[in-house]
Amino acid sequence: SKPGVLLAFHSDNHEVPLEEKHRFPMSKYRLTRLALEGDATVKDLLEIREAPQATEEDLALAHDPGYVRRFFEGQLGPKEMRSIGFPWSEGLVRRARASAGGTLAATRALLEWQLPFTANIAGGTHHAFAGRGEGFCVFNDIAVSARMAMTEEGIEKVLVIDLDVHQGNGTSAIFAQDDRVTTFDVHGDKNYPWKTRSKSTYDVALKDATRDEEYLALLREWLPRLFAEHRPQLVFFQAGVDAMEKDSFGRLSLTRKGLLERNEMVLSKCLQEGVPTVITMGGGYSRPIDKTVEAHADVYRTGA
Protein backbone atom coordinates (compact mmCIF):
# COMPACT_ATOMS: atom_id res chain seq x y z
CA SER A 1 0.00 0.00 0.00
CA LYS A 2 1.18 3.52 -0.76
CA PRO A 3 2.94 5.06 2.24
CA GLY A 4 2.10 8.63 3.23
CA VAL A 5 5.52 9.05 4.82
CA LEU A 6 9.16 8.31 3.98
CA LEU A 7 9.34 4.62 3.13
CA ALA A 8 12.65 3.10 4.22
CA PHE A 9 13.93 -0.45 3.94
CA HIS A 10 16.00 -2.21 6.58
CA SER A 11 16.96 -5.75 7.52
CA ASP A 12 18.56 -7.48 10.47
CA ASN A 13 20.51 -9.38 7.82
CA HIS A 14 22.79 -6.34 7.49
CA GLU A 15 24.59 -7.35 10.65
CA VAL A 16 27.09 -10.18 10.28
CA PRO A 17 29.24 -11.24 13.24
CA LEU A 18 32.87 -10.14 12.87
CA GLU A 19 35.91 -10.67 15.06
CA GLU A 20 36.36 -8.06 17.80
CA LYS A 21 39.22 -6.17 16.18
CA HIS A 22 37.57 -5.79 12.75
CA ARG A 23 37.43 -2.15 11.61
CA PHE A 24 33.93 -2.24 10.19
CA PRO A 25 31.13 -0.78 12.40
CA MET A 26 28.68 -3.61 11.78
CA SER A 27 26.12 -2.48 14.36
CA LYS A 28 25.53 0.90 12.72
CA TYR A 29 22.55 -0.30 10.65
CA ARG A 30 20.57 -1.53 13.63
CA LEU A 31 21.61 1.46 15.76
CA THR A 32 20.57 3.93 13.04
CA ARG A 33 17.18 2.28 12.78
CA LEU A 34 16.80 2.38 16.58
CA ALA A 35 17.84 6.05 16.66
CA LEU A 36 15.11 6.86 14.12
CA GLU A 37 12.47 4.77 15.88
CA GLY A 38 13.35 6.38 19.19
CA ASP A 39 13.11 9.91 17.80
CA ALA A 40 9.63 11.29 18.52
CA THR A 41 9.95 13.99 15.85
CA VAL A 42 10.45 11.55 12.95
CA LYS A 43 8.88 8.34 14.19
CA ASP A 44 5.54 9.11 12.55
CA LEU A 45 7.14 10.42 9.35
CA LEU A 46 8.87 7.15 8.60
CA GLU A 47 7.66 3.70 7.65
CA ILE A 48 10.29 0.97 7.86
CA ARG A 49 9.77 -2.23 5.86
CA GLU A 50 11.86 -5.39 5.55
CA ALA A 51 14.45 -5.29 2.77
CA PRO A 52 13.92 -8.28 0.46
CA GLN A 53 16.77 -10.51 -0.72
CA ALA A 54 17.93 -9.55 -4.22
CA THR A 55 17.85 -12.56 -6.56
CA GLU A 56 20.62 -13.78 -8.89
CA GLU A 57 18.55 -12.40 -11.75
CA ASP A 58 18.32 -8.96 -10.10
CA LEU A 59 22.05 -8.85 -9.47
CA ALA A 60 22.87 -9.92 -13.04
CA LEU A 61 21.46 -6.55 -14.19
CA ALA A 62 24.80 -4.99 -13.23
CA HIS A 63 27.03 -7.95 -12.38
CA ASP A 64 28.72 -10.80 -14.14
CA PRO A 65 26.42 -13.81 -13.41
CA GLY A 66 29.48 -16.02 -12.81
CA TYR A 67 30.70 -13.68 -10.07
CA VAL A 68 27.25 -13.62 -8.45
CA ARG A 69 27.00 -17.40 -8.45
CA ARG A 70 30.53 -17.92 -7.13
CA PHE A 71 29.86 -15.51 -4.28
CA PHE A 72 26.54 -17.17 -3.43
CA GLU A 73 28.26 -20.56 -3.30
CA GLY A 74 31.33 -19.42 -1.37
CA GLN A 75 33.62 -20.11 -4.33
CA LEU A 76 35.52 -16.81 -4.43
CA GLY A 77 39.26 -17.14 -3.81
CA PRO A 78 41.06 -15.77 -0.72
CA LYS A 79 42.41 -12.81 -2.69
CA GLU A 80 38.92 -11.87 -3.89
CA MET A 81 37.55 -12.10 -0.34
CA ARG A 82 40.48 -10.06 1.03
CA SER A 83 39.59 -7.36 -1.44
CA ILE A 84 36.00 -7.34 -0.14
CA GLY A 85 37.28 -7.17 3.42
CA PHE A 86 34.88 -9.61 5.12
CA PRO A 87 35.23 -13.38 5.58
CA TRP A 88 32.71 -15.37 3.50
CA SER A 89 29.68 -16.84 5.28
CA GLU A 90 26.04 -17.63 4.52
CA GLY A 91 25.29 -14.56 6.63
CA LEU A 92 27.44 -12.39 4.36
CA VAL A 93 25.44 -13.64 1.36
CA ARG A 94 22.19 -12.64 3.11
CA ARG A 95 23.70 -9.26 4.00
CA ALA A 96 24.84 -8.55 0.43
CA ARG A 97 21.47 -9.60 -0.99
CA ALA A 98 19.51 -7.50 1.55
CA SER A 99 21.71 -4.50 0.86
CA ALA A 100 20.97 -4.61 -2.89
CA GLY A 101 17.39 -5.79 -2.26
CA GLY A 102 16.60 -2.78 -0.07
CA THR A 103 17.70 -0.29 -2.71
CA LEU A 104 15.85 -2.22 -5.43
CA ALA A 105 12.65 -2.25 -3.35
CA ALA A 106 13.07 1.46 -2.57
CA THR A 107 13.48 2.23 -6.29
CA ARG A 108 10.45 0.16 -7.29
CA ALA A 109 8.25 1.77 -4.62
CA LEU A 110 9.50 5.25 -5.53
CA LEU A 111 8.56 4.88 -9.19
CA GLU A 112 5.39 2.85 -8.70
CA TRP A 113 3.84 5.29 -6.23
CA GLN A 114 5.47 8.42 -7.63
CA LEU A 115 6.93 9.37 -4.26
CA PRO A 116 9.49 12.17 -3.83
CA PHE A 117 11.93 10.05 -1.78
CA THR A 118 12.44 6.49 -0.58
CA ALA A 119 15.39 5.11 1.33
CA ASN A 120 17.52 2.12 2.20
CA ILE A 121 18.96 2.17 5.74
CA ALA A 122 21.98 0.38 4.24
CA GLY A 123 23.39 0.18 0.71
CA GLY A 124 25.45 2.70 -1.18
CA THR A 125 27.93 -0.14 -1.82
CA HIS A 126 29.77 1.79 -4.48
CA HIS A 127 33.11 -0.08 -4.55
CA ALA A 128 31.56 -3.21 -6.09
CA PHE A 129 32.48 -3.68 -9.75
CA ALA A 130 30.64 -5.87 -12.27
CA GLY A 131 32.87 -8.87 -11.59
CA ARG A 132 34.44 -8.28 -8.18
CA GLY A 133 33.89 -6.73 -4.78
CA GLU A 134 36.09 -4.28 -2.94
CA GLY A 135 36.12 -2.03 0.12
CA PHE A 136 33.39 -3.82 2.16
CA CYS A 137 31.14 -3.93 -0.95
CA VAL A 138 30.01 -7.16 -2.64
CA PHE A 139 27.26 -6.03 -5.01
CA ASN A 140 26.58 -2.52 -6.27
CA ASP A 141 23.02 -1.76 -5.14
CA ILE A 142 22.83 1.58 -6.95
CA ALA A 143 24.05 0.11 -10.25
CA VAL A 144 21.64 -2.83 -10.00
CA SER A 145 18.71 -0.53 -9.17
CA ALA A 146 19.54 2.01 -11.87
CA ARG A 147 19.67 -0.79 -14.46
CA MET A 148 16.35 -2.14 -13.19
CA ALA A 149 14.76 1.31 -13.55
CA MET A 150 16.09 1.66 -17.09
CA THR A 151 15.11 -1.89 -18.07
CA GLU A 152 11.72 -2.21 -16.38
CA GLU A 153 10.45 1.29 -15.63
CA GLY A 154 11.30 3.17 -18.82
CA ILE A 155 13.71 5.57 -17.10
CA GLU A 156 16.15 7.05 -19.61
CA LYS A 157 18.30 9.42 -17.53
CA VAL A 158 19.78 8.65 -14.12
CA LEU A 159 21.95 10.85 -11.91
CA VAL A 160 24.09 9.36 -9.13
CA ILE A 161 25.12 11.92 -6.49
CA ASP A 162 27.84 10.16 -4.51
CA LEU A 163 29.01 12.17 -1.50
CA ASP A 164 30.71 9.38 0.43
CA VAL A 165 34.30 10.47 1.17
CA HIS A 166 35.66 7.57 -0.92
CA GLN A 167 35.36 7.58 -4.70
CA GLY A 168 32.53 5.35 -5.96
CA ASN A 169 34.88 3.52 -8.30
CA GLY A 170 32.60 0.53 -8.90
CA THR A 171 29.59 2.62 -9.88
CA SER A 172 31.55 4.83 -12.26
CA ALA A 173 33.25 1.79 -13.87
CA ILE A 174 29.94 -0.03 -14.39
CA PHE A 175 28.44 3.02 -16.12
CA ALA A 176 31.58 4.24 -17.91
CA GLN A 177 30.14 3.38 -21.34
CA ASP A 178 26.52 4.20 -20.52
CA ASP A 179 25.47 7.74 -21.45
CA ARG A 180 22.14 7.37 -19.68
CA VAL A 181 23.83 7.47 -16.27
CA THR A 182 25.67 10.53 -14.97
CA THR A 183 27.95 9.90 -11.98
CA PHE A 184 28.83 12.91 -9.83
CA ASP A 185 31.38 12.05 -7.16
CA VAL A 186 32.83 14.28 -4.44
CA HIS A 187 35.57 12.53 -2.47
CA GLY A 188 38.85 12.94 -0.61
CA ASP A 189 41.80 13.15 -2.98
CA LYS A 190 44.28 11.30 -0.76
CA ASN A 191 41.90 8.57 0.29
CA TYR A 192 40.98 4.98 -0.60
CA PRO A 193 40.65 3.67 -3.33
CA TRP A 194 44.30 4.32 -4.09
CA LYS A 195 44.95 2.02 -7.03
CA THR A 196 41.53 1.24 -8.46
CA ARG A 197 39.89 4.60 -9.11
CA SER A 198 37.63 4.88 -12.13
CA LYS A 199 36.59 7.96 -14.03
CA SER A 200 33.17 9.30 -13.02
CA THR A 201 31.32 11.69 -15.32
CA TYR A 202 32.37 14.36 -12.81
CA ASP A 203 35.00 13.77 -10.12
CA VAL A 204 35.58 16.44 -7.51
CA ALA A 205 38.61 15.52 -5.39
CA LEU A 206 39.02 17.44 -2.13
CA LYS A 207 42.17 18.11 -0.19
CA ASP A 208 42.55 16.77 3.35
CA ALA A 209 40.77 18.70 6.11
CA THR A 210 38.28 20.41 3.75
CA ARG A 211 35.69 22.22 5.89
CA ASP A 212 31.95 22.90 5.68
CA GLU A 213 32.09 26.26 3.96
CA GLU A 214 34.23 25.19 1.02
CA TYR A 215 32.36 21.89 0.64
CA LEU A 216 28.91 23.48 0.63
CA ALA A 217 29.98 26.25 -1.76
CA LEU A 218 31.16 23.61 -4.18
CA LEU A 219 27.88 21.68 -4.01
CA ARG A 220 25.88 24.87 -4.41
CA GLU A 221 27.75 25.50 -7.64
CA TRP A 222 27.50 21.95 -9.03
CA LEU A 223 23.93 20.89 -8.26
CA PRO A 224 22.06 23.32 -10.56
CA ARG A 225 24.45 22.46 -13.38
CA LEU A 226 23.91 18.71 -13.03
CA PHE A 227 20.14 19.03 -13.27
CA ALA A 228 20.23 21.63 -16.05
CA GLU A 229 22.69 19.72 -18.23
CA HIS A 230 21.52 16.15 -17.66
CA ARG A 231 17.79 16.42 -16.91
CA PRO A 232 17.66 13.23 -14.81
CA GLN A 233 14.38 11.36 -14.27
CA LEU A 234 15.75 9.48 -11.26
CA VAL A 235 18.43 10.30 -8.67
CA PHE A 236 20.40 8.01 -6.37
CA PHE A 237 21.89 9.87 -3.40
CA GLN A 238 24.80 8.01 -1.81
CA ALA A 239 24.78 9.87 1.50
CA GLY A 240 27.92 8.50 3.20
CA VAL A 241 28.81 10.47 6.34
CA ASP A 242 32.52 9.62 6.41
CA ALA A 243 33.48 13.17 5.36
CA MET A 244 32.85 14.09 9.00
CA GLU A 245 35.76 15.35 11.08
CA LYS A 246 37.48 12.62 13.14
CA ASP A 247 36.07 9.83 10.95
CA SER A 248 38.57 6.94 11.13
CA PHE A 249 38.80 6.66 7.33
CA GLY A 250 37.69 10.13 6.29
CA ARG A 251 40.46 12.76 6.29
CA LEU A 252 37.99 15.64 5.74
CA SER A 253 36.70 18.04 8.38
CA LEU A 254 32.97 18.48 7.91
CA THR A 255 30.84 18.97 11.02
CA ARG A 256 27.55 17.23 11.73
CA LYS A 257 25.84 20.55 10.98
CA GLY A 258 27.72 20.82 7.67
CA LEU A 259 26.56 17.33 6.70
CA LEU A 260 22.99 18.27 7.65
CA GLU A 261 23.19 21.27 5.33
CA ARG A 262 24.64 19.04 2.63
CA ASN A 263 21.69 16.62 2.92
CA GLU A 264 19.16 19.45 2.87
CA MET A 265 20.82 21.02 -0.15
CA VAL A 266 20.76 17.79 -2.17
CA LEU A 267 17.27 16.65 -1.20
CA SER A 268 15.63 20.06 -1.57
CA LYS A 269 17.20 20.42 -5.03
CA CYS A 270 15.79 17.02 -6.06
CA LEU A 271 12.38 18.04 -4.69
CA GLN A 272 12.48 21.43 -6.39
CA GLU A 273 13.35 19.77 -9.72
CA GLY A 274 10.62 17.16 -9.18
CA VAL A 275 13.04 14.26 -9.60
CA PRO A 276 12.30 11.13 -7.51
CA THR A 277 15.26 10.18 -5.33
CA VAL A 278 16.49 7.04 -3.59
CA ILE A 279 18.61 7.64 -0.49
CA THR A 280 21.30 5.11 0.45
CA MET A 281 23.53 4.96 3.49
CA GLY A 282 27.15 4.70 2.41
CA GLY A 283 30.15 4.88 4.74
CA GLY A 284 30.61 6.22 8.24
CA TYR A 285 33.41 5.16 10.57
CA SER A 286 33.53 7.59 13.49
CA ARG A 287 34.46 6.33 16.90
CA PRO A 288 32.58 6.26 19.19
CA ILE A 289 30.00 4.80 16.83
CA ASP A 290 27.17 7.03 18.09
CA LYS A 291 28.61 9.97 16.12
CA THR A 292 28.30 7.95 12.91
CA VAL A 293 24.84 6.73 13.87
CA GLU A 294 23.56 10.25 14.53
CA ALA A 295 24.99 11.53 11.24
CA HIS A 296 23.42 8.61 9.32
CA ALA A 297 20.09 9.15 11.10
CA ASP A 298 20.22 12.85 10.14
CA VAL A 299 20.08 11.88 6.46
CA TYR A 300 16.80 9.99 6.92
CA ARG A 301 15.39 12.71 9.18
CA THR A 302 15.97 15.21 6.38
CA GLY A 303 14.30 12.86 3.88
CA ALA A 304 11.30 12.47 6.16
TrEMBL record:
Annotated GO biological process: epigenetic regulation of gene expression
InterPro entries: HDAC_classIV (IPR044150), HDACs (IPR000286), His_deacetylse_dom (IPR023801), His_deacetylse_dom_sf (IPR037138), Ureohydrolase_dom_sf (IPR023696)
Keyword Membrane: no
Every Histone deacetylase domain range: 26-290
GO MF annotations, alphabetized: histone deacetylase activity; hydrolase activity
Keyword list, A-Z: Hydrolase
PANTHER family assigned: HISTONE DEACETYLASE 12 (PTHR10625:SF19), HISTONE DEACETYLASE HDAC1-RELATED (PTHR10625)
Protein name: Arginase/deacetylase
Organism: Coccomyxa subellipsoidea (strain C-169)
Lineage: Eukaryota, Viridiplantae, Chlorophyta, core chlorophytes, Trebouxiophyceae
